[in-house]
Amino acid sequence: EMRDGRPWQARHLLRRVHAIARLLIGQVEILETMTPQDFLVFRSTLAPASGFQSAQFREIEFLSGAKDPEFLKRFVGLTEAERQRLERRLSEPTLWDAYLHVLSACGLAVDGAAPDGQPAILDSLRSVAGDRDADGAEWDLAEALIEHDANAWLWRSRHVVMVERQIGTRSGTGG
Question: What is the pTM of this model?
Answer without folding.
Answer: 0.82
